[in-house]
Amino acid sequence: MSNQQRVAIVTGASSGIGLATARALRKDGFRVFGTSRKPAADKDGVEMLQCDVVDDASVLNLVRDVVSKAGRIDLLVNNAGSGLLGAAEESSATQVQSLFDVNVFGVVRMTNAVLPVMRRQGQGRIINMSSIVGMIPSPFNAFYVSTKHAIEGYSETLDHEIRKQGIRVSLVQPGFTRTSFEDSMRNPDSPLPTYDLARKAADKQMREGLDKGDTPELVAGVVVKVANAKSPKLRYSAGKVSTQVGFLRRFAPAFVFDKIVRSANKLPA
To answer: Which SUPFAM superfamilies match (predicted)?
Structure first.
């Protein structure tokens, strides 16, 4: 790629981690196309294009547009996503399906759309934004957690399938990050009084965690590192807490980890 500018797509790039990542990649020399569900002006050299990852036609049109403008796609960062805070029992199957349509099937749509382009090039890289909760349970976030666990399994398997084609897949796992993520957080569609106090406590804890979390720029720096790695790893922690939790998940005995989870979430032993 010494004679051609590398081209990247970053989904969900209107704010937060997505915008910070798009800017960081642009600074690193990529030509960057960021996506948002609603029309948005270009930002700091990032070319913004409209795309809804839950819509097949919208995704395909985006990829065609990028190839038409830039001729290639070297990097896809699947960042678009939303949350759902509440007890597992409080969400209908329809609501859960809607969350998975963004967080999981949106990744699948984007990936399937860029793979033929990358395969023709003989190279490419896909970075899927996972989370610290892609490794652990998080009470009152059961379905958001489930989407990230799904992305973890999908990404690891996909990497084995397409590696021979010169394409690699990696996961970035942020912890709490200072963004407006709570603005896209969905409420359960079937709330139950028995969970009211615990749900409010979980919401308060999440907001406090976001306020004290890592900067989006820290996560963006990890993405740039992965994009430039000659021999990329599958998983990359983003931030001190993510690194610590990953270590505990791997090496702490199950009963110890269970106690840690309950204590961290202020649940009775």
So the answer is: NAD(P)-binding Rossmann-fold domains
